[in-house]
Design brief:
Bound molecules: phosphoenolpyruvate, manganese (II) ion
Distance between the termini: 42 Å
Radius of gyration: 23 Å
Structural class: alpha/beta
Number of strands: 15
Shape: elongated
Order of helices and strands: EHEEHEEEEHEHEHEHEHEHEHHEHE
Largest sheet: 8 strands, parallel, barrel
Number of helices: 11
Length: 338
């Protein structure tokens, strides 16, 4: 950060700024000789409010250099983060498919879907036990019963479990059932929840908020990382725009931008991103081509009868077709499907 002083700032005003920074625990280095015009602030610390410094006498401008997120930033940590799980690894050399129903509806459908996925080489199962629904009258998920089902699905099939946690009170149980804990779009800035999962031993799949900028998203990741959990995976699931031809606008342009700014893996969710199963395949393929590290995708044994998001869920036949196309395209990009 650079604090630009007025050309006629007094020595006392320069001293005032340095003392102020000192009280915040950061060093300010005056540059520009006796008629000091700027103060260079070197700090890896976040949370310095530049607007407050701007109020000090003699200050004309405060310029932030670099990003407010540090641990997520590629400038600070250039190497790509690879998340290694017993079932699959998520990173730049692979293309990871996480698939399953929107919600765990009952044991039979969850088991059937997991067995189908395992037979196709898909090693990570998605399915919500706690569902964030727009309407309180919609199916809210089975809660603890859903987590118990997921536990049995994992035990019987060996598939890894990705499931959402909606509030701090349920983190212990969700953590126990999950191989990856999902933070949904509506909770991307639920800071209490982010702080709690920052102490989790499980990787966190962090979905992008409905109207979050890339910086806001990465600051949310920074919450998790700064609390001690470096294993964060981003997931682009569409943002809210004026477009009304699809449920959300899947922002694939965020993938190269995120890859440049941070070292975290990024998945694409073409199911919530489009809301329409006919649009899932093209956007899934586009996600691969745009450089995503994998997909989070809704698959249901009987989409018309799904209790949530049937319209955007692939049936098994459609999923098979998608896998075929993904395998072909992954070869073009030198990625290994897992
Ligand atoms: C989900 O993946 O189950 C989900 C609810 O997604 P989102 O948070 O992106 O709406
Ligand atoms: Mn869903």
């Amino acid at each position: 950060m650079l604090v630009v002083m007025a050309a006629n700032a007094s020595e006392q005003e320069v001293r005032g700024v340095i003392d102020f920074l000192d009280k915040l625990g950061v060093a300010g280095q005056p540059v520009g000789g006796p008629a000091c015009t700027t103060i260079h602030v070197v700090s890896a610390r976040n949370g310095i409010d530049s607007r407050q410094i701007r109020l000090l006498p003699g200050v004309t401008q405060v310029v932030r250099d670099g990003k407010a997120y540090k641990l997520a930033s590629r400038d600070h940590y250039p190497a790509d983060t690879v998340i290694k799980l017993p079932q699959a690894s998520i990173g730049p050399d692979t293309f990871t498919i996480i698939a399953g129903p929107c919600a765990v509806e009952n044991e039979a459908m969850a088991m059937r879907t997991a067995e189908f996925l395992m037979s196709r080489g898909v090693r990570l199962f998605r399915g919500g036990a706690y569902k964030p629904r727009t309407s309180p009258y919609s199916f809210q998920g089975l809660g603890q019963e859903g987590l118990d089902i997921l536990g049995r699905v994992r035990k019987q099939t060996g598939i890894g479990i990705v499931t959402e946690v909606m509030d701090v009170d349920h983190v212990d149980e969700v953590e126990a059932a999950a191989d990856i804990v999902q933070i949904g779009t509506r909770n991307m800035q639920n800071f209490s929840l982010l702080k709690r999962v920052s102490r989790s031993s499980k990787p966190v799949l962090l979905k992008r908020g409905l109207s979050a900028t890339l910086d806001e998203w990465l600051m949310a990741a920074e919450y998790v990382m700064s609390g001690g959990n470096a294993r964060v995976i981003l997931c682009e699931r569409g943002v809210r725009t004026f477009a009304d031809h699809s449920r959300n606008t899947l922002d694939l342009s965020v993938i190269p931008a995120a890859k440049k700014s941070c070292h975290l893996s990024i998945l694409v969710d073409p199911s919530h991103g489009t809301g329409n199963r006919d649009h899932v395949m093209p956007m899934a393929l586009a996600g691969l081509a745009a450089g995503a590290d994998g997909l989070l995708i809704e698959v249901h044994p009987d989409p018309p009868r799904a209790l949530s998001d049937g319209a955007q869920s692939l049936d098994f036949g459609q999923f098979d077709l998608l896998l075929l196309k993904l395998t072909e395209l992954a070869a073009v990009f030198g990625r290994k499907l897992n």
